[in-house]
């Protein structure tokens, strides 16, 4: 007797739900996408944080006609496409006709809706395994969907849910991504007890971003756009001194859909070029608008991934747009940030993933919710800091009886706007040094503070880069040649890279099946262990299979080298050398950050000081 049987639709839906409905945030995504597709201009979401399984999404969209109400919950039932060909022109968020079928197979759903053409709407109650209950509903045009008891009939699935905080974090994150893609839509997110996000309709993603991250100011984002006949790339780049170890603040939107795309992420990294190390990532929002036939969105059940028809061209466009956005920052002289959220101090080498976090979301009590939601943990002081105004005077707690002291300086600095000027005019004079780390300068009438280690890193990096480009890296011959042994499988690859290595200052001869003699190393590596440096290179170019001379590989080496060779804390630097260092720094193409993205200097202008002293 045969053993194969067709599965009942309820089971098929539950299985499909495994892909589409991973957690409460997936439900939120699907419901909000449906509201967007229904042409809503206002979408309100309420999530019950004490009982995470309840999610309510209400919209003022077209509503669902009484005749369609049951169909909407059938698998493969959709109003959005009717032929395979339609897939190539789809601009709606949904088209698979499976979201509601999946959700309603693993939860209890109440739908209240009224179609624009109706005077009386419909209410539908669906519980898996029970017959649907339909009744009239007297309410406004639009749709409200309440999902309760998520995964009540698939306990295994429930077990995979993370803590309430984590799930809340996903909910906020999901709505935020949707809100970033649709700035003109008004969004509210609340718990039964309080508002979390309340976003007005905005004309551009730029204004929406400023709403979502209240501690960001206009000076923190560079805005750039490239356009063609039927495409557009918009880039919003966060100040490059706010890098992170992960890509959490890199967002890609294609035709407003938030997606992950390794190729385009790489384009962002390459757009940063030598300005940042490859293992740190700058906050970037990239919005791509393309004709729908240039991409395939039907490659992933939740549509998080897409396939691009002209991937190479888009890669170059994104890379160029990011590069040009960086150039906007390259022209600015940093002065203390106006934002309380992120001091200009991310140290991207620490291995932590929290550096440079963006501030909490706007809301009645963003601090608490953000903490509950686990957003940006690890920067508590940042989230708790009140947002100071952009103006200096009137700092909280200041009274004439208690004159400000310099321990308040960080607060003052945070209140200052970032200057948009190019190198300000004025003579540069080193006047002192501080804590074995900082060089104090007067710059015309301004005061500047330079971190001489990072400044030196930038200088070394540019120097070495120039030498490589000019084909003449200064090298030193080793008095006692060193033997470099590698696994046999690696040796052959290395053999094909000897010429490239020589261009960057390493001269090696093969002396055996697995051994090489190192005759010289780059001058910048004097005193360093040649084998360690070569191992570093081998690591980053995967056993020398990848050309060492690829510009990103060289950048990595340069960054390590320039960091090693730079003056260290407490290396004494006299003021004359200090001045020379700053002049040389200002000659480099990107003087205000080191290659790892840390700032090299801070400037306090005469006007800022006058303002502070009430002159
Ligand atoms: N909020 C809403 N307002 C109006 N119509 C809706 C709403 N939500 C769902 N619908 C209707 O129900 C249908 C089914 O929704 P469902 O989300 O299951 O599928 P889809 O959006 O077509 O495709 P996908 O599975 O890719 O999301 C939609 O095609 C739409 O016609
Ligand atoms: Mg849908």
Tell me what the structure shows.
The chain is of the alpha+beta class and 615 residues long. Mean pLDDT is 78; it is low at 335-422. The protein has helices at residues 9-20, 24-37, 99-105, 155-159, 164-181, 205-212, 262-272, 311-330, 366-372, 380-384, 409-414, 452-469, 488-495, 498-503, 530-540, 551-564, 575-587, 606-612; strands spanning 42-47, 55-59, 108-114, 121-126, 133-137, 142-148, 186-190, 195-199, 221-227, 232-238, 250-254, 257-259, 284-289, 295-296, 307-308, 428-434, 438-443, 446-451, 475-485, 507-512, 515-522, 601-604. The strands form five sheets. It has an eight-stranded mixed sheet. A five-stranded mixed sheet has the order 9-10-13-11-12. A four-stranded antiparallel sheet has the order 16-17-18-22.
């Amino acid at each position: 007797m045969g053993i194969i049987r067709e599965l009942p639709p309820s089971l098929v839906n539950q299985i499909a739900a495994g892909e589409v409905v991973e957690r409460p945030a997936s439900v939120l995504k699907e419901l909000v996408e449906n509201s967007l597709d229904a042409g809503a201009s206002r979408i309100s979401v309420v999530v019950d944080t004490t009982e995470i399984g309840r999610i309510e999404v209400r919209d003022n969209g077209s509503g669902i006609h009484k005749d369609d109400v049951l169909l909407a919950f059938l698998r493969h039932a959709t109003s959005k496409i009717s032929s395979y060909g339609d897939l190539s022109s789809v601009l709606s968020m949904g088209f698979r006709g499976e979201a509601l079928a999946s959700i309603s197979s693993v939860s209890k759903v109440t739908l209240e809706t009224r179609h624009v053409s109706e005077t009386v709407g419909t209410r539908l109650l669906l519980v898996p395994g029970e017959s649907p209950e339909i009744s009239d509903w007297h309410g406004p045009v639009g749709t409200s969907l309440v999902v309760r008891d998520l995964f009540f009939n698939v306990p295994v699935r429930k077990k995979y849910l993370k803590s309430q905080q984590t799930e809340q974090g996903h909910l906020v994150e999901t709505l935020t991504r949707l809100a970033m893609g649709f700035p003109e839509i008004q969004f509210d997110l609340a718990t039964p007890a309080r508002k979390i996000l309340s976003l007005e309709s905005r004309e551009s993603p730029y204004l929406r971003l400023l709403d979502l991250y209240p501690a960001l100011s206009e000076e923190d984002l560079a805005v750039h756009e490239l356009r063609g006949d039927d495409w557009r790339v918009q880039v919003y780049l966060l100040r490059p001194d706010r890098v992170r170890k992960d890509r959490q603040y890199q967002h890609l939107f294609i035709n407003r859909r938030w997606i992950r795309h390794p190729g385009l992420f790489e384009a962002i990294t390459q757009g940063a070029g030598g300005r940042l190390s490859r293992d740190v990532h700058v906050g970037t929002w990239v919005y791509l608008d393309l004709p729908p036939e240039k991409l395939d969105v039907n490659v992933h059940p939740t549509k998080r991934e897409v396939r691009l028809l002209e991937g190479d061209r888009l890669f170059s466009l994104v890379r160029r747009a990011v590069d040009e956005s960086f150039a906007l920052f390259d022209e600015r002289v940093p002065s203390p940030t106006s934002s309380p959220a992120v001091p200009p101090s991310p140290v991207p080498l620490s291995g932590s993933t929290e550096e440079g976090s963006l501030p909490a979301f706007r809301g009645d009590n963003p601090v608490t919710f953000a903490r509950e939601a686990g957003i940006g943990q690890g920067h508590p002081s940042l989230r708790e800091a009140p947002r100071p105004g952009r103006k200096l005077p009137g700092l909280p707690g200041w009274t004439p009886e208690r004159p400000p002291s310099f321990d308040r300086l960080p607060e003052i600095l945070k209140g200052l706007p970032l200057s948009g000027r190019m190198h300000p005019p004025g003579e540069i004079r080193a006047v002192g040094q501080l804590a074995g780390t900082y060089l104090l300068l007067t710059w015309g009438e301004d005061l500047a503070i330079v971190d001489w280690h990072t400044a030196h890193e930038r200088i070394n990096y540019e120097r070495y880069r120039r030498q490589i480009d000019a084909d003449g890296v200064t090298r030193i011959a080793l008095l006692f040649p060193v033997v470099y042994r590698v696994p046999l499988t690696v040796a052959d690859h290395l053999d094909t890279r000897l010429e490239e290595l020589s261009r960057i200052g390493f001269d090696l001869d093969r002396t055996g099946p697995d051994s090489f003699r190192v005759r010289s190393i780059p001058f910048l590596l004097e005193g360093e262990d040649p084998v360690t440096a070569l191992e570093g290179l081998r690591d980053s170019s995967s056993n020398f299979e990848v050309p060492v001379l690829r510009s990103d590989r060289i950048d990595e080496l340069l960054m390590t080298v320039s960091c090693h060779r730079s003056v260290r804390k407490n290396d004494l630097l006299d003021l004359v050398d200090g001045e020379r260092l700053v002049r040389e720094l200002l000659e480099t193409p990107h003087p205000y950050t080191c290659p790892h993205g840390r700032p090299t200097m801070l400037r306090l202008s005469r006007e800022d000081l006058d303002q502070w002293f009430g002159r």
